[in-house]
């Protein structure tokens, strides 16, 4: 299956930090309106795309939001102080460009005496080229958010871009619904909000949907770069089937089912244990009386940076596994 580059570019270029996901939601809704039976947005902003069926009720979550920064103060000199929206690394952020919703571009720099190896967010500021507070206030306001500026690169094997966390999960959900020919299941593909702030959209969506089985689509780290051997996940080795992260320990029944599905369908896979972070699965599996939940992850280098890197072959294996699961009767659930 050929990679849909045009769709991927539109997804990663959409401005949608946590709490302001309307632009990316609009792109996804337009893309899926002819491929599902129902589309709605709940009061949190989650985009819920449903293929109606009489079988098991499945919730698949792919978060739409991306990390960013929010202005907390405008200095007299016109520089902007800011806080984080999600997992912003102060060292990585130094000298990076950021762009606001209105197109204003700034550069992150540090206070003169701050030591680079001990940077904190309070040591940083954004320079938008304003000559004083009055000029800055014409461009931005306190509470305005911005995201990293990044360039999209795609070659035969790789994609390099910001916001692959988690626009690649959104891409997989979209492509899976397009490719799914038959399923008796009642499928809720939920493109969630505010995952980077604590799985908030998935929490409310799972409560409302009451799924019998849950899946999260997201990225994961990799352990295949020099002197980084604690994570047994590598790019080009297939779909990552999660066993554990900080939000979930996957039920062995779910893990064994997903592995069996991959084996039976000749889908390349690898097992993943992530020592940092969590996905929407952490919220889904704790909803109401509990939901058996798994995760399909795309191995990724340079997470939460403007140069996140993935292999297209891994994405295809993830989509193949997702399609097979959505079309299955899920008899292991009883």
UniProtKB/TrEMBL annotation:
Family indicated by similarity: Belongs to the peptidase M42 family.
Ligand binding (Zn(2+) 1): 63, 165, 218
Annotated gene: ysdC_1
Protein name from the UniProt record: Putative aminopeptidase YsdC
One Pfam family hit: Peptidase_M42
EC number(s) stated in the UniProt entry for this protein: 3.4.11.-
Gene3D superfamilies per record: Peptidase M42, domain 2 (2.40.30.40), Zn peptidases (3.40.630.10)
Any one Gene Ontology BP term: proteolysis
Keywords carried by this UniProt record: Aminopeptidase, Hydrolase, Metal-binding, Protease
Highest taxon above the source species: Bacteria
CDD domains documented for this protein: M42_Frv (cd05656)
Chain sites annotated for binding Zn(2+) 2: 165, 196, 304
Organism this protein belongs to: Andreesenia angusta
Active site: 195
Cofactor note text: Binds 2 divalent metal cations per subunit.
CC cofactor: a divalent metal cation
Alphabetized GO MF terms: aminopeptidase activity; metal ion binding
């Amino acid at each position: 299956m050929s990679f849909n580059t045009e769709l991927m570019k539109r997804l990663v270029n959409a401005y949608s930090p946590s709490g302001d996901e309307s632009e990316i939601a609009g792109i996804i809704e337009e893309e899926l309106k002819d491929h599902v039976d129902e589309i709605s947005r709940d009061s949190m902003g989650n985009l819920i795309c449903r293929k109606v069926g009489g079988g098991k009720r499945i919730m698949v979550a792919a978060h739409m939001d991306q990390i960013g920064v929010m202005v907390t103060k405008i200095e007299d000199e016109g520089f902007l102080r800011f806080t984080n929206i999600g997992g912003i690394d102060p060292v990585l952020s130094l000298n990076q460009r950021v762009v606001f919703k209105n197109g204003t571009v700034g550069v992150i720099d540090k206070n003169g005496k701050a030591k680079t190896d001990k940077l904190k967010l309070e040591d940083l500021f954004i320079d938008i080229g304003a000559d004083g507070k009055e000029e800055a206030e014409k461009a931005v306001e306190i509470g305005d958010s911005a995201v990293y500026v990044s360039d999209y690169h795609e070659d035969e094997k790789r994609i390099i871009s910001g916001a692959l966390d988690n626009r690649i999960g959104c891409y997989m959900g979209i492509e899976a619904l397009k490719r799914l020919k038959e399923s008796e299941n009642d499928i809720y593909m939920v493109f969630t909000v505010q995952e980077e702030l604590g799985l908030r959209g998935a929490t409310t969506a799972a409560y409302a949907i009451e799924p019998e089985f849950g899946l999260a689509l997201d990225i994961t780290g990799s352990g295949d770069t020099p002197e980084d051997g604690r994570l047994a996940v590598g790019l080009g080795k297939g779909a990552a089937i999660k066993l554990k992260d900080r939000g979930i320990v996957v039920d062995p029944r779910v893990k064994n089912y997903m592995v069996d599905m991959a084996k039976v369908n000749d889908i390349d896979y690898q097992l993943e244990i992530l020592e940092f972070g969590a996905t929407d699965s952490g919220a889904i599996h704790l909803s109401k009386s509990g939901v058996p939940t798994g995760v399909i992850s795309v191995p990724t280098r340079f997470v939460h940076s403007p140069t996140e890197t993935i292999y297209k072959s891994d994405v295809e294996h993830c989509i193949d596994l997702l399609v097979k699961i959505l079309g299955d009767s899920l008899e292991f659930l009883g």
